[in-house]
Amino acid sequence: MHKIDIHIIVSSTNSPLHRLSKLLSISISRSCPKTEHHMKESWNSNHDLQNIIIPPHHEKISFDVVQLFPSMRLRLIVIGIGKRWHLIENHTLLSKDEFLEAVNLIFKNTHSQFDGEFYKQEDGAPRGLPLSPIVANLVMEDCIENCLRVLENTSNFEPIILRIFADDGLAVIPRDQVRNFIRTFNENNENLDFTIEKG
């Protein structure tokens, strides 16, 4: 039985920061190639991944981040952009300081209206902004890079397959490393909470 997540998505169309968010998202998307772990579509519709042959003593697991967008801290986003600035700077007229100032402006000043009341989002990335899924990919890619490095150095293993789609992941790993795998991901950052489902 699969869990059902319900997310509130507030459209930012016509909001004061929508056009700026769109501009920054285009700069990042055009400059940062997806890693080998990224998928363009969910594995539920990906035939190749549905028919994976699992080697002996290995297991296929799916994992995801609980509420990725609200859990992303601005610090993680700034780190992700900073690591890739040598690529991003070729697709924007802004300096690095101006670009990061714009990112900070967007994520610190997002408001929504419900039932006649205005609300300000204090943490995380609003789902309705064009920039949010773009920086979410950066955060997830950095998380995977860090965790794979730790697993290789401490446990001397790499997943046979590791793919991500948005906040969901799929991996084929040694059966005796399942606990270590998810523990490593949860210890990578205190704000990102990973859950796991076997089979």
TrEMBL record:
Domain of life: Eukaryota
Protein name from the UniProt record: Uncharacterized protein
Lineage of the organism: Eukaryota, Metazoa, Ecdysozoa, Arthropoda, Hexapoda
